Please model this.
Amino acid sequence: MKKWMALAFAAMLAGTWLGPSAHAAPADAKEAGAPEQRRAAYGQMALLTGLDWEQVAALDQYERTLRKARPKTRPKLGSWAGLYVSTEQWSGMTNPDSDDRDPASIRFFGGIGRDGDGDGKADRSSDIDLLYAQASAVARFGSSPDDFSIGVWEFYHNQRAVQRINQFSLLYRTFGRLDLDGSAFPVPVGTDYSYRSTWGTARGWGGHRTHEGTDIFAGYGLPVRSTCFGVIENMGWNAYGGWRIGIRDADNRYHYYAHLSGFDKSLRSGMTVEPGRTIGWVGSSGYGKPGTSGKFPPHLHYGIYRDRGMIEWAFDPYPLLRQWEKAEYKAKKAKSRR
Model:
């Protein structure tokens, strides 16, 4: 009863009632998982578990990104919640009823299934039950940054998951919202630069390899900008990429900017950035020991990678670059008409 009263109070605070029927799929599937709906649900789970809403959001977002990267092995269970868990994990590995929805017997058999929406059932197809199952499992260890990290580790046994979820939490805490889909072209549009698709072309320095990115050729010193809302994950020298910076966005993509002539001195690893923020300048560094420069014409190497949970894989950024460039030109044109 105490838990259900807390849930009702949380829903009223969020301005949206998410009672027993909350997990039913909405009439318009396009609205499933709208940011305002998810934000309300994360507020509920924060009140129920003692975690911050940003931490709950980060847990769910990590699962959503894994589903996007591996849709065949991690199908959607509810309408929008990210968590994928097998029937055996949900009900308990030794539970004779793999479809058990009774919270008491699920607990008895060590399953993670929980009743989050107060309908008396731990339903694996309920968004709220899925959220509560994951958040309560992590919250057993506490809500302080260190305790939260321990809880995430115990849930995934994967240090990459701990890092990603903490990064997502920081982004939500910094910007105060879930919608972090803004973008920017990596150099100022309208300036003197050129690029074409160079994905998969051969590279020879350091051994045979293929090009995992797009080269944007421009003069020394042209500003290089963040393409996304993100957290600086790596910053410094790389023998191949020279002075490089790597930024992780909330969609679990890693944006890689290489061959820079230098960084914005105010930036540090672990800081957040927004689209269009200057992070460095075009250069020709790389292919050698720290400080090596001039072995090729000045350009920005831009790459993008998606985290699949245990590994990351690169994909061709050229279509996104064209899309972002076109959007910025369109916005500039519309602004000039005002």
User: Anything to note?
Assistant: Residues 7-31 have pLDDT under 50 and may be disordered. The chain has nine helices and twelve strands. The domain at 193-336 is CATH 2.70.70.10 (Glucose Permease (Domain IIA)).
